[in-house]
Amino acid sequence: MDTQTATGQRSHAVCIPSPYQSHIGAMLKLAKLLHTKGFYISFVNTEYNHRRLLKSRGNRALDGCRGFQFLTITDGLPPSDADSSQDLCAVRDAIRNNMSAPFSDLISNLNHTASSSDFPPVTRIFSDGFMSFVTNDAAQEFRIPIISLWTIPACAFMGFKQYRTLREKGLTPLKDTSYLTNGYLDTTIDWIPEMKDIKLWDLPTYLRSTDHDDIAYNFTMDATERANTASAMIIHTFDALESELLNALSSMYPRVYAIGPLSLLLDKLVKEESPLKSIDCSLWREDTECLRWLDSKEPNSVLYINFGSIAVLTREELIEFATGLANSKHPLLWIIRPDLVSGDSAILPREFIEETEGRCMLACWCPQEAVLNHFSVGGFLTHCGWNSIIESVSAGVPIICWPAFGDQRTNCTYACNKWEIGLELSGAVKREEVERLVRELMDGDKGKQMKKRITEWKSLAQEATNPNGSSSMNFDKLLNELLT
């Protein structure tokens, strides 16, 4: 049955993620949830990512289903058939400068063809929080409300929100590169609501630039400042995990909804036989053989290693990780993208292959949620992307944190110090420290405490996504307000 607004208009949501793997995944989950509530869905990828999705999942992968279609817009960047993530700076520049007009044209075309298609005119735009540069002009032109989805936790959003104030107070940009190591980043920031004793070091890392025109700093600063242009904000978290920060944000913005973990909500709302189950968004071909390999391992014995879709290692870091992991003596499932090593191929040392024979599986990509929920996986070495952390919480798997950039630094601080579910690998990657942390996570007393703690958070995440849980009720409240 179609969902309708108070005026009787059928609801058609255009959903547009940031063009990165984890952002696409979170937005797709939200789109599926909306579809279960009767929304028509038009899901918009860049042409580049659309081609990658077809390449990884087959020509029928984006056929969609009744009332759910995939569309594309250009990002204005040079054409490429590379099977890798695009340059971050180039993508941010494209989001700012290239994609607004194509998106407006897409909305115009959808509305123009509504009378002759199965899809009604567009009634709502669900935009990734970092895509307001793309969506705001169309929203104003066609008078369509925007709901923003922030695929970062409340703590990271609050950190990005301080960027303007940090600049006005003269704390950023850094005076010179010596400020990275002279203790300056240990400066306590005492004005952020509900982030007591937070240091510059703990805030998203783009503030560590010495350049006033730094692209990443200015992009994220401007994007978070534009958050108030949305009719409502969805933050991919849940009330119990970040209640104080969510309350603080609710005092700053009119409609803030903590809705997550999205994967748990989806599991409870989408039936196994639903065609939505077959719609996925992996930009790399997933190796499902790893699940059969995991079947042969003992419960909680395997360490899963995945540094996400964007982070890169140096050749030296790869060798240090490999040696430390091999020396830990634990079974390993290691995801190694073809572009994982900067400027080089991700070829592991021969000694690693020999030492881990029979207890290590390597793959280019995998179905991460299925891996984390497998009985044999007992720990996760991660770059601390929010998607990975909230999936770890949902699965009850403790983590070793090696944050790379951006919000990952803040996510790591909260995972280790606030939620007590992680151990941090800090400083330069050293094989001895990698080995020590793996042994502590998988066998030590600290690891047992973290397992107990993350099991408690898992239970709270399940409660939040039950029919009367906070995330379920927030989702229903959002829909009710959208339709009135």
UniProtKB/TrEMBL annotation:
<dbReference type="GO" id="GO:0035251">
    <property type="term" value="F:UDP-glucosyltransferase activity"/>
</dbReference>
<dbReference type="InterPro" id="IPR002213">
    <property type="entry name" value="UDP_glucos_trans"/>
</dbReference>
<keyword id="KW-0328">Glycosyltransferase</keyword>
<protein>
    <recommendedName>
        <fullName>Glycosyltransferase</fullName>
        <ecNumber>2.4.1.-</ecNumber>
    </recommendedName>
</protein>
<dbReference type="InterPro" id="IPR035595">
    <property type="entry name" value="UDP_glycos_trans_CS"/>
</dbReference>
<comment type="similarity">
    <text>Belongs to the UDP-glycosyltransferase family.</text>
</comment>
<keyword id="KW-0808">Transferase</keyword>
<dbReference type="Pfam" id="PF00201">
    <property type="entry name" value="UDPGT"/>
</dbReference>
